[in-house]
Amino acid sequence: MLLEVRDLQVEFRTRDGVAKAVNGVTYEVDAGETLAVLGESGSGKSVTAQAIMGILDMPPGKITGGEILFQGKDLLKMKEDERRKVRGAEMAMIFQDALSSLNPVLSVGDQLGEMFIVHRGMSKKDARAKSIELMDRVRIPAAKERVSQYPHQFSGGMRQRIMIAMALALEPALIIADEPTTALDVTVQAQVMDLLAELQRELNMGLILITHDLGVVADVADKIAVMYAGRIVERAPVHDIYKAPAHPYTKGLLESIPRLDQKGQELYAIKGLPPNLMAIPPGCAFNPRCPRAQDVCRTDVPPLAQVSEDRQSACHFWKETLRDA
Amino acid sequence: MPELTKEIADAHPTPTAEPILEVRGLVKHFPLTQGILFKKQIGAVKAVDGVDFDLGAGETLGIVGESGCGKSTVAKLLVNLEQPTAGEIRYKGEDITKLSGRALKAVRRNIQMVFQDPYTSLNPRMTVGDIIGEPYEIHPEVAPKGSRRQKVQELLDVVGLNPEYINRYPHQFSGGQRQRIGIARGLALRPEIIVADEPVSALDVSVQAQVVNLLEKLQDEFGLSYVFIAHDLSIVRHISDRVGVMYLGRLVEIGSDREIYDHPTHPYTQALLSAVPVPDPDARLHRERIILSGDVPSPANPPSGCRFRTRCWKAQERCELEVPELAVPAVFRLEGGPTAHPSACHFAEEKQVVPESDES
């Protein structure tokens, strides 16, 4: 297994109290596989990714438990200089907002080339040649001329492709893409997702795709982990989850997508709001919003129950949910 | 273009005969200037460049398009936050772009707006009561001073918020609740038309549905007409009676939701619809996707002829020379049926791109 996250716990200590952003997350990705992590804002999906990359702001963040095994080694036990060698070379991240993730006062070529100079000890000249090659690879037209341009001279879609180029520069084994296309228009989103999927196949990389878009997930993912209030509520192969969700939250998300046969009717809406991470409800965190909640849901945290060989659900009533689906 | 409008009206009998809003030849150019003392105009960003549509009473018109296509500028023009460079916006037959003073104020009461970002469109230093009640300061005839507090509480109740929250500040609310406050403010003056610019885009998936349902409920309750601007095509389809597709300052196709989604004839509409990810992993295999190359050209220097031609797989010489009119294409005109709706393409042809759209 390329990456295994085991029972990860992250909290943020703030003036107002402790926010439990990640409460025991477990997932794994293999080479060549795409795992989609689905969740709303505040579900802990990005925080988990930052902990894997080792770019979590600490303090206020603190990893209070769990392990992150990357190619068998626990990243959390590594020293910072060992970790730095892994970051960028072995695993890389693509951020949502390319404009604010790129340095506005350095040319695109300088930023791409830096990877090769720092990690591979290349000369400036070689690094530049490599940068042009990379820009070609992510299909930026006239790469030779554009390599010395600055981020503001590129369109949104192209900037995102430069981010992808940067992440791919050292051919890492794992890519984490945090909402890589959320800021883009649909036609450009299709271009970028296509490119990402193609390069992943070519290099046989593991990909963790963090998103809230159920459409994008259905298009590219092999398996899904659904997060809610810092926990995984359901893990399953992509086809199973869309066919028959085994958790009421997943079911609610799928049902709130407008469908053709519902036109003119009220949309299904999950009632209420996502919980405040400083006061997560006791028992199942989803219970105040859940149509199926019973007394047991308000007292006992549901364990991640095995639904089938490769599928789990953290619901006391997953059997009933699955049956009704 | 009186002939064209007649054609559109013939093809689309709206529920009510008289449109409440008629937009004709709407143009908005933002000048680009050079020089400090003597400003010289060196060009213009053609944000909106000739847009025509009607809005029937009680109807929802969805406008979709990508960023930079001018859909938000259209929204601002409709509520008079921007002055058009040319064209007419007729509200119940009266051109509101020519109005000023008292007459303008009276019309603006009837056309209100709901903004995209519930975080920046509410003043953080005002209480919810002040925010929702502010329209009454400008239009005191709607609610005399003594009754305002009660009116605001009624509005909070209508949009599904606790009326006791009247003295709270925006930061005490979540995104979805803030959007409800924005909607309550839009409703305060009992308008007939609400222009909603991406009202749910900033919200979480599970909250979006709540707000969409609220907007539909309010429409039934108050008989509102909506211009609903968004880039999420599935939500637009759900809420709209008719849909217009914009590209680079122009409408390229307009029709009922079924005409646009199930029988699109303009290549841009087809590409746009095919690019939308479908939440069904089984569709991956048997779905044809049109991946457009390149980016949207700059509206300061749009391509000649058809503006989509630089990214269009059908483009020919004619597209470069001749601007396609937004009209029912001749090939479909006689045939009738759902393909006979206005589409601005020289080579319009039907192509089904949305899978599993059953006709029943």
TrEMBL record, chain A:
Belongs to the ABC transporter superfamily. Keywords: ATP-binding, Cell membrane, Membrane, Nucleotide-binding, Transport. InterPro entries: AAA+_ATPase, ABC_Ni/Peptide_Import, ABC_transporter-like_ATP-bd, ABC_transporter-like_CS, Oligopep_ABC_C, P-loop_NTPase. This is ABC transporter ATP-binding protein. It is found in: Cell membrane. CDD domains: ABC_NikE_OppD_transporters (cd03257). Gene3D superfamilies: P-loop containing nucleotide triphosphate hydrolases (3.40.50.300). It comes from Streptomyces polyasparticus.
UniProtKB/TrEMBL annotation, chain B:
It holds the Pfam family oligo_HPY. Coiled coil: none annotated. The keyword Repeat does not apply. Transmembrane segments: none annotated. The keyword ATP-binding applies. It comes from the Bacteria. SUPFAM superfamilies: P-loop containing nucleoside triphosphate hydrolases (SSF52540). GO terms for molecular function: ATP binding. Residues 21-273 form the ABC transporter domain. CDD domains: ABC_NikE_OppD_transporters. Keywords: ATP-binding, Nucleotide-binding, Transport. NCBIfam families: oligo_HPY (TIGR01727), PRK11308.1 (NF008453). Belongs to the ABC transporter superfamily. This is Dipeptide ABC transporter ATP-binding protein. It comes from Streptomyces polyasparticus.
